[in-house]
Every structure is written in structure tokens, then in C-alpha cells.
């Protein structure tokens, strides 16, 4: 096989991850918008209960869109599907920008979720299909990197502008994304599935270089895309294989513990958390610091994922997050019983959250989605993404909607301790259940799961 170029593949991966940037702006929007809409009354009066729905309804949209997205990717293509997702993005931001009441704003957030959840399935699959094995992990990590950048964008812009202008700028981002993605090629895997071999050759030459001979790779794609892929295999048949069950257990477990690490509660309510902590620093500045840390850590993940492996980063990530969640819970517990002592510990929540934000993207931020795309056997690929995506976002909805109510009921400190306890279980799950997929082909990973786990022969 002739020598290939990596830069075009990286460019295509970044272009697809531009949708993740748009998702990040929607996720990060909640933090600076919360005090301005609830306390300052920008737009119209919004109660705390209404805000809880505005902040969390985006995850409902994400969960719903995970179900049909696989059909659209197979029907019109990966690239075309992502281009079409610009429409709900624009509709969502338009409803928020010109919102006249609660119904318009909550509907806008719902449409943002529809686009966001679909991107969590389509962009990683596109990236996995356009990348060579040697850089698959790095390109797959672009999704979390661009989500972090989008969140940071909302934090910075939201600190200085009104919610209206923050929403306007966020609404422009999907248009820029569509313009960039338009010039990128369609997934060669999809083109081979549709028997568009000439277009598949052109796509591979764009991705690998003009001097690249795509014949061998196309033959390999055809060999791998057996009849069980080209025809619809019922879920009842696909789930019978040991590798299929293992893939679902691994995927559902990783995404469960990703949410039980409290990331969405922290992202949605970071400004409120720092304001309540009374750390002597402007809450907007605190969240901007968090956003910078998260972006830096996401960048490090893209560098390390193909060097250190998935399991090492996952374990290191969740261990550090567990410690910091316990520390945050301890601070808020002390604050509730001894405010004077808590004032002397004002550094603790900022330090702990910064460390947390450094740890999350390195492991449990983007790697679970990467591992899900790697461990899904050929027969299960049509089902794994939608099932796990729906589960993850439905759980995120429950966490974000109930976070304020739970903290009111049992206390902020005790709530973070619950998250920390869940993360302890996540450490055990990661160590004993999750396999290492670094440097393995998808066929080798499937064989590993059929043998019963992460142990080598």
C-alpha cells in the first residue's frame, strides 16, 4: 500500500468535529445565561423551576435524536446527515434569540438537543471511517476537544455580552461549520456500502493523497462489509453473540459512569456553584478558568490517546475525579455547618474543580464514545450507537434536571458525595471490564470480546 498523507484526514476529522463545537456552545450557554435570565430578568421573568427545564431539556432532544440518526446516516450518508443537522441548530438558536416566553426558549433548547445528540453519533462514526488505524484515536478525540472549545467560547462571550448577543454568536457557528464541512469528502465506507466505488476512490484519494492507490483499501472495505452489514440484521440475532453483549455492557457502563461523574451538573451550573462557594472571585472568571482547563486537557487527550492507550487514561481520569468530587462535597458540607471555617477554604472548590476539569476530558470526556465506536461488532453497529446514545443523554437529563432539587433536599455537599461514591464503582468497572483497544483493528477487538474480555491470549 502506497504512502499516505495524514493532514487531509486530520482536516476532515476537525471539520466533522466542528459540529461538536456547536454542541459545546449549547452546553456552555447555560452557565453564563443562568444568573442573567433568572436573577437579572433579561428577556422575561423566569423562575428557578422553569430554568431547570431550560437548562436540562437539551438532553431530552439529544436522547430522542440518537434513535433515528443511524437510519439517516445509512440512507443519505454521514456527511449529508451532518449537513442537515444545521437546520435544527439554526431553528433552535432562532427560537432562543427571539424568545418571547418560556415555551419558545425551552423549545429552542430542545431543537439544539436534537442536533447535538445526533452529532454525538454521526461525527465520531464519520471520523472513524475516514481515519487510518494509526491516527484513529487522535482524530476520534477531536470531538471532545471541539466540545470543550465550544463550551469555553460560551463562557468567555457570556461573561461580557448579554444572553441575546451570546445566542446570536452561537447561532452563527452552525453556518460556519456547514461551509467548512461542505468541501470535505463523504465517508468512503458509506460510498462502498452504496456501491459507489468511483466516488469511494475519489474520497480515499482526497483523504490519503492524490498519489495514493485506493484499490487495496476498497477491497478490504468490501471484504469487511459482509452480507450481515449490507442487509438488515435483526437485533434479536445480533445480540446473541458474546461480543455484542460485551459491547453493550462496556458502552452502557462507560456512559453511565461518565454521567455519574457529575460533568453535566458542573457544566450547567458552574457559575452558580462558584457564586454559592463565595470564593472571592467573579463567578464568570471562575467558569472561564474551568473552560480553559477543559480545552487544554482535551488537547492533551488527543495527543496521548494513541500513545498511552484508552484504559490508562480512563482509569487515571476517574480516580482523580473521584478525589476532587469528595473534596468539593466536603467544602460544601463544611460551609453548611460552619460558614466561618468555609471562608478560610475558599480556594478548595476552585482548585478541585480545575483539577476535575483537567481530568475529565483526558479520559471520561471523549474516550467512552471512541471505545463504543471501536468495540461494537459489525452486526451491532446499527444498534449500539442509538441505544447507548439514548441512554447517555436520558441519564444526563435526569442528572441536570434533578441536581438543584437534590441539593435543596439533602445539601450540596452530600450531593457531590453521592457522585463521588458512584465514581468509585466506576473505577472498579473500568479496571475489570473495559478492554484496551489501542493499536488493534476492529476485527481484533471483536475477536477479543468474543474470547470474553480484555485478557490477551
From TrEMBL:
GO terms for molecular function: sugar transmembrane transporter activity; trehalose transmembrane transporter activity. CDD domains: MFS_GLUT6_8_Class3_like. Its main location: membrane. This is Facilitated trehalose transporter Tret1. It comes from the Eukaryota. The chain crosses the membrane at residues 12-31, 51-73, 80-100, 106-126, 138-157, 163-184, 245-269, 285-305, 312-334, 346-371, 383-403, 415-434. GO terms for cellular component: plasma membrane. InterPro entries: MFS_dom, MFS_ERD6/Tret1-like, MFS_sugar_transport-like, MFS_trans_sf, MFS_Trehalose_Transporter, Sugar/inositol_transpt, Sugar_transporter_CS. It is a multi-pass membrane protein. Belongs to the major facilitator superfamily. Sugar transporter (TC 2.A.1.1) family. Trehalose transporter subfamily.
